[in-house]
């Protein structure tokens, strides 16, 4: 690892720069571990229906990008919807 990090330095004060790089990577690793632990501790996500119900709205922006529909599941769950019919050309 130190040899790989050496290319990221200016090769003059490389000892100090290598320690800074190591410190940053350690900090990022800790943050990632904390985030993973928080995600595991949170209750399972309940599916929310975040579709707009007001026809007067021009567009709808969801609260989070973490809540999404799988494309295949969406198509399967809307089979009887007439707007989902495929037009063969």
Describe the protein.
Helices cover 45% and strands 0% of the residues. By secondary structure, it is mainly alpha-helical. It has one domain. 0% of the residues are buried.
Give short descriptive properties of this protein:
89 residues, mainly alpha, 45% helix, 0% strand, elongated
Write the layout of secondary structure elements.
Layout: H1 2-6, H2 14-41, H3 71-77
Helix-strand category: mainly alpha
Order of helix and strand elements from N to C terminus:
HHH
Assign an overall shape. Answer: elongated
Strand content: under 5%
What is the share of helical residues? Answer: 40-55%
**In angstroms, what separates the terminal alpha carbons?**
56 Å
Tally of contiguous helical segments: 3
Report the uncertain regions.
Answer: none
Rg, Å, rounded: 24 Å
Q: Please tell me the total number of domains.
A: 1
The overall strand count is 0
Report mean pLDDT, rounded to a whole number.
76
Biggest sheet architecture: none
